[in-house]
From TrEMBL:
PANTHER family: ABC TRANSPORTER ATP-BINDING PROTEIN, CONSERVED COMPONENT OF ABC TRANSPORTER FOR NATURAL AMINO ACIDS-RELATED. This is ABC transporter ATP-binding protein. It comes from Desulfomonile tiedjei. The keyword Transport applies. It comes from the Bacteria. The lineage of its organism: Bacteria, Pseudomonadati, Thermodesulfobacteriota, Desulfomonilia, Desulfomonilales. CDD domains: ABC_Mj1267_LivG_branched (cd03219). Pfam families: ABC_tran, BCA_ABC_TP_C. Keywords: ATP-binding, Nucleotide-binding, Transport. One of its GO terms (molecular function) is ATP hydrolysis activity. Residues 12-260 form the ABC transporter domain. GO terms for cellular component: plasma membrane. SMART domains: AAA.
Amino acid sequence: MAVLNDNQAYHLEVDHLTMGFGGVVALQDVSLKVRQGEIYSIIGPNGAGKTTLFNCISGIYRPQAGSIRFRGRELIGVKPHKISQSGIARAFQNIALFQGMTVLENLMAARGHLQKYGLLTAAVFLGRCKKEEALSRDRVEDIIELLDLQRVRHMPVGALPYGLQKRVELGRALAMDPQIILVDEPVSGMNLEEREDMARYLLDIHESMSLTVMIIEHDMGLVMDLSDTVTVLNFGIKIAEGKPGDIYANPEVITAYLGQA
């Protein structure tokens, strides 16, 4: 875990966020502050509003009230692709990869917004285009090595088992060179060995890339082992925030999960 202090800058600030769908309030007056370089987990029962929160941060949803600031810049009203270009990447719970493309091609495609050359330069593949493609390829190869994807780099993603596809989904987000990565249910549907591997990859990513990592997860063991800070949502309301040990022993959190303290 990261060693944090109160003087560290907040990387992401969510203030009094409210998001509703018709008569259903998915998030109600939710506030949180994520320090730069920490692993910040969001937990809660199904329907608690966790993915809705990520969708608001990503620009997919526009909340009815509140503020979301990344490095001091307001994100509400900013288009999703502009938010991703600003340094916030997302690995989705439901895999969002190009199934007919190889692992390498999927990761290279994620870097399209980082390429600064024009169509003519790309057509002749000289100068700046050639240099930037080489830099992107080197970056992608580093990610492939970090996530142990070397043996499947030239395989179509659709031919890979689910656990490997989840790893490629994570790699696709990393290929965007983010400052914050939002990881939605990274170990859902995995067996024990795959879950342990994913936990190790998340730690490696956090340490080697100095990323701020936000995680939504139901696996309490993974959350408690990895997180610096944990926030708990229940029916769209934040009911607890703190260190993993404090959250684990919180009676209100136990009641939300089990129905009784």
